[in-house]
Amino acid sequence: MKEPKPWVKPVLELGPVLLFFLVFILTRDETVSLGGRDYGGFIIATAVFVPVLVLATAIQWRLTGKLAPMQIATLVLVIVFGGLSVWLNDPRFFKMKPTMIYLLFAAILGVSLLARRNWLGAVLSEALPMDAEGWRKLTLRMTLMFLGLAAANEVVWRSMSDSTWVYFKTFGLPLILFVFLMANAGLFRAHAPDRPGKGDE
Question: Is Oxidoreductase one of the keywords UniProt gives this record (predicted)?
């Protein structure tokens, strides 16, 4: 199967999120009446986001022939919680979705630590080669990070406005993940399997 161009994957992954943000910004002060019910901007943006994410995921699967387990889990939770928010006209379900995703990821990584299985390495080792100890440390750190993100999402959506949550979800969470990866650059270098002199330590 022909490998897609490098820019395709980021567009398919980030496009639906940015579209959700744009639709929300444009409609947050609007109300749309359908079937005798009034829907605010948050629900409108969610109703756009869910099918667009399904389409983007389907295109990615068609182009690459594969999807990561985390992508599949995320898609299922988006459909379930996004669908509930639109159906019940209640933004809370969609706002809880990141919490469920992060708790799921933390649980999977936590189980892999307890079972002494390198599940994270099995998924990412091709892009980020490290020795077993490096993967163990990264798995522990990512487990704690996902638990922290779940707690942060709960605090933000329960105590702040829709707009604040949307900004937090669209820009805050990706920034936290980026900072986390940068903070672990030393770990990646220290546990690279071909690091010079490593066998003498």
Answer: no
